[in-house]
């Protein structure tokens, strides 16, 4: 499929979404944001070369909400276009259409994570129409989302589409305490890389409790399965990677594997299932003008059977971990985010993340030679942002924001040992 044809299809999808949501405006609340951004990134391809570029971004976000006391249904569309200046062939767009239903029932409990003021006591209130607070009501959520990404021909391996389903139930267990159960299932198809097409299912158990209406602490644990739908692979396109040597599989195709470095290297090619589990603790603190959220997690990958598409200089056109999600690595991670309202309505956000990731594959040099039995990354990231919303009318406004990021990914895999930084300015029009 040509790039022009993909772009035409994307325009049609956007028009259809606009028509669907605009036709519903008379029945509920329709809101939207159109955002344009310009930025400079020191390493937008996230690899060892660290080549810089200017990046232009455009996004449209439409939301339709309809509610009654205690329940709410929403439909949303998000579409985004990423345009590179130096790496024009990397331009892509992606979009998603979602529908979500929320329902709250039962008496209100005081839950700190949703109390944004410092008042000691508040009277119980009924859930207002169209508003579903994430509190200690019995709380149900059902959601479905379809999404897709489309790249130019040179990078069509990124093309993918999929569907995600979510079901969640939260209920009180004691004063200010709750349990939340969440199940997320998905299917993701890589049109031009069928060896990575997969189905996933992730179940999460969360236990939390409030502390004096302005804080919440708790723990969560998750278990998941990722199933690859193809049990064979084309040996004319892929070589197997192992810690000891590069061997050659019995997958379909005409090649028997010659060790040609122009082939892509895939780890655990014979495995169709990978498993994931994580457990950890979190804390939330809110006050009148801001909030703080911190979380400590530890992930494991039992069996280490996840497929992994390796990156190296001579053949890899992949420049991010788009194919290497959390099923691909284990290890500890920590994150903290602070949000604060300053003078004149300025919003300030700061976030720090750190993690040690031990992947399910060996580390390579730039010539695809194995240099360590397992790839290990130590990833540190700092993000800062300020924004200001300007009201232009009763339901119309402009949002101006400036963000900056610093990233260091220290790895024993040569391709993935890099640093990155970037700054971007965006202007959003909302209604």
Main CATH class: Mainly Beta
Low-confidence stretches: 5-27, 109-134, 243-261
CATH architecture: Beta Barrel
Q: Indicate the radius of gyration in whole angstroms.
A: 23 Å
Global structural class: mainly beta
**Per DSSP, what share of the residues sits in E-state strands of 2 or more residues?**
over 45%
Query: Could you give the count of β-strands?
Result: 21
- Average residue pLDDT: 82
Features:
single chain, 431 residues, mainly beta, Porin, 16-stranded antiparallel barrel, 3-stranded mixed β-sheet, 1 helix, 5% helix
General description of the model:
With 431 residues, this protein is mainly beta. The protein has one domain: Porin, CATH 2.40.160. Helix content is 5%, strand content 55%. It has one helix at residues 3-23, and strands at 29-41, 53-68, 71-84, 92-105, 138-151, 160-174, 177-189, 198-211, 215-228, 238-241, 264-267, 273-287, 290-300, 308-309, 329-341, 346-359, 363-364, 370-372, 376-391, 397-411, 418-430. The strands form three sheets. The protein has a 16-stranded antiparallel β-barrel. It has a three-stranded mixed β-sheet with strand order 10-11-14, with no helix packed on it. It starts with a helix and ends with a strand. The model is unreliable at 5-27, 109-134 and 243-261 (pLDDT under 50).
């Amino acid at each position: 499929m040509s790039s022009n044809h993909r772009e035409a299809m994307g325009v049609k999808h956007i028009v259809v979404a606009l028509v669907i949501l605009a036709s519903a405006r008379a029945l509920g609340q329709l809101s939207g944001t159109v955002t344009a951004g310009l930025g400079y990134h020191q390493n937008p391809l996230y690899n060892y070369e660290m080549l810089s570029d200017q990046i232009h971004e455009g996004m449209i976000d439409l939301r339709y909400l309809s509610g009654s006391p205690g329940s709410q249904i929403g439909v949303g569309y998000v579409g985004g276009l990423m345009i590179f200046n130096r790496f024009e062939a990397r331009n892509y767009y992606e979009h998603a259409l979602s529908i979500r239903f929320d329902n709250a029932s039962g008496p209100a409990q005081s839950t700190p994570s949703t109390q944004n003021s410092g008042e000691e006591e508040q009277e119980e209130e009924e859930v207002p129409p169209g508003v579903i607070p994430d509190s200690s009501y019995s709380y149900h959520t059902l959601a479905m989302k379809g999404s897709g990404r489309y790249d130019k021909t040179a990078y069509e391996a990124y093309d993918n589409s999929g569907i995600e389903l979510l079901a969640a139930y939260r209920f009180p267990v004691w004063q200010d305490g709750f349990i939340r159960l969440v199940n997320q299932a998905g299917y993701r198809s890589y049109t031009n890389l069928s060896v990575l097409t997969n189905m996933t299912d992730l179940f999460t158990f969360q236990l939390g409790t409030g502390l004096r209406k302005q804080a919440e602490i708790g723990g969560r644990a998750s278990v998941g399965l990722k199933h690859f739908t193809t049990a064979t692979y084309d040996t004319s396109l892929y070589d197997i990677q192992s810690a000891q040597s590069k061997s050659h599989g019995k997958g379909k195709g005409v090649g028997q594997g010659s060790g040609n470095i122009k082939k892509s290297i895939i780890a655990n090619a014979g495995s169709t299932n990978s498993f994931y589990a994580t457990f950890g603790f979190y804390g939330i603190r809110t006050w009148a003008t801001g909030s703080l959220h911190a979380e400590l997690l530890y992930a494991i990958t039992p069996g280490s059977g996840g497929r992994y598409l390796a990156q190296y200089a001579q053949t890899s056109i992949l420049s991010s971990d788009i194919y290497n999600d959390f099923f691909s690595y284990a290890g500890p991670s920590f994150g903290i985010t602070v949000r604060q309202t300053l003078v004149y309505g300025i919003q300030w956000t700061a976030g720090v993340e750190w993690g040690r990731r031990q992947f399910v594959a060996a580390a390579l040099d730039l010539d695809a030679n194995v240099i360590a039995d397992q790839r290990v990354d130590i990833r540190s990231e700092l993000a800062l942002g300020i924004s200001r919303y300007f009201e232009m009318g009763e339901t119309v406004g402009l949002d101006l924001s400036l963000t900056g990021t610093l990233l260091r990914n220290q790895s024993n895999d040569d391709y993935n040992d890099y640093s990155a930084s970037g700054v971007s300015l965006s202007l959003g029009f909302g209604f």
